[in-house]
Amino acid sequence: MNVCIIYGGKSGEHQVSKVSALSVFKNLDKTKHNAVLIGITKKGEWYLQPQDEKLISQNGDYLTIREIPENRVNIIPGGRENAFRIQEKALSTDVIFPVLHGTYGEDGTIQGLFEMAQIPYIGGGVLSSSIAMDKEKTKIIWENAGLPVVPYIAVKDYQWENPEEQQKIIARAEYSLRYPVFVKPACAGSSVGAGRAENRQELLLKASEAFQWDSKILLETSINAREIECSVTGNKVFTAYTPGEIAPTHDFYDYEAKYLDPKGAALKIPADIDDSMMYRIRETAVKAYEALDMTGLSRVDFFIDKNDGRLYLNEINTLPGFTSISMFPKMCEASGLPYALLLEELIKLAIDRFENKKQLKLENLE
């Protein structure tokens, strides 16, 4: 099959995507599949890339994006396997592997494009991807499903810009959440724009920084927590894999700790938890996944309160990191599913979902 790996993108996680994409490319079984590489620049332009690993990797760490004008990619709605084109030439595509993180990658926008092109793709659909990107909407759905979430307050920019409304929000946060308070953009990935406020002055500063990334932010209770993650795959039958634990060396697991500081965190797989908690996390991860109508894959993130042992859902990542040391593939591997076979499973799930959807009656077309 022709597997189209799309990477880069316009989000703040552009560079991380290029690292993940190299791992996917290296581990894809070339005896079964032909890799078609499309790089998206930070400006949002799409370019076909060479398939020779020596030409496409930079120091062996990540895939580059060569902006060759004659390799600019166009998309034909309804084009199916021939939807991607360079000038008049079709790039035959059987399935898309979007190795994209954050905005314009896992927020439902590009998934809608794939739907219009009518090509199978790996990961959640338009609605589930869009909802999961919005931390407030995700929490609302999880709360409605009876799942435990961290106490929070959602704030829109127009509310914060109103001095009287802002004072009410601050008073509410100080009363119901109490300091320290976590501040984060509602729709941004990898902890970009997130910070912790120890007092009112810091809350004002962190809120201002978070609003640079999104028009809506969340204020959350700061929990003295252990951070646990669990990989989940499936469309109709779901598998939750061995949970892992992140032990940050920073104040919290921010963007720098994840990607810039090689000693930013210790990763433990399996997590150092008892069998009862292990079972509960895996069970809750599947419930969280199902509640959002997820398909393909996701990484579900948890907090365990160090003070009272309570379990909370933190967030869900619909296109998690795929580097060779990323938690998602490592947790799958710990459960007996190595990286290369994981890719095969995700390709199968993408095609199965596409074929099942084709059987549905959409309209009485003549």
TrEMBL record:
Q: Which residues bind Mg(2+) 1?
A: D301, E315
Q: What class of enzyme is it?
A: ligase
**Catalytic activity, reaction form:** 2 D-alanine + ATP = D-alanyl-D-alanine + ADP + phosphate + H(+)
Its main subcellular localisation, reduced to a broad class, is cytoplasm
Localized where?
Cytoplasm
Q: What Enzyme Commission number(s) does the record list for this chain? A: 6.3.2.4
Q: Describe how the cofactor binds.
A: Binds 2 magnesium or manganese ions per subunit.
Which pathway is this protein assigned to? Cell wall biogenesis; peptidoglycan biosynthesis
Q: GO CC annotations?
A: cytosol
- Gene Ontology MF terms: ATP binding; D-alanine-D-alanine ligase activity; metal ion binding
Is this entry keyworded Phosphoprotein? no
Checking SUPFAM superfamilies in the record gives: Glutathione synthetase ATP-binding domain-like (SSF56059), PreATP-grasp domain (SSF52440)
Enumerate the residues binding ATP.
135, 182-184, 190-191, 220-227, 314-315
Domain ATP-grasp: residue ranges: 139-348
Q: Name one GO biological process term.
A: cell wall organization
Q: Which residues form the active site?
A: E13, S190, S326
Name the coenzymes or cofactors required: Mn(2+); Mg(2+)
The UniProt keyword set, sorted, is: ATP-binding, Cell shape, Cell wall biogenesis/degradation, Cytoplasm, Ligase, Magnesium, Manganese, Metal-binding, Nucleotide-binding, Peptidoglycan synthesis
Q: Name the InterPro entries for this protein.
A: ATP-grasp, ATP_grasp_subdomain_1, D-Ala_lig_Van_CS, D_ala_D_ala, Dala_Dala_lig_C, Dala_Dala_lig_N, PreATP-grasp_dom_sf
Q: Which Gene3D superfamilies match?
A: 3.40.50.20, ATP-grasp fold, A domain (3.30.1490.20), ATP-grasp fold, B domain (3.30.470.20)
Q: Which residues form a coiled coil?
A: none
Q: Function of this protein? A: Cell wall formation.
Q: Which HAMAP family would you find in this protein's record? A: Dala_Dala_lig
Cross-referenced NCBIfam families, in alphabetical order? Answer: D_ala_D_alaTIGR, PRK01966.1-4
UniProt-recorded name of the protein: D-alanine--D-alanine ligase
Q: What is the lineage of its organism?
A: Bacteria, Pseudomonadati, Spirochaetota, Spirochaetia, Spirochaetales
The encoding gene is ddl
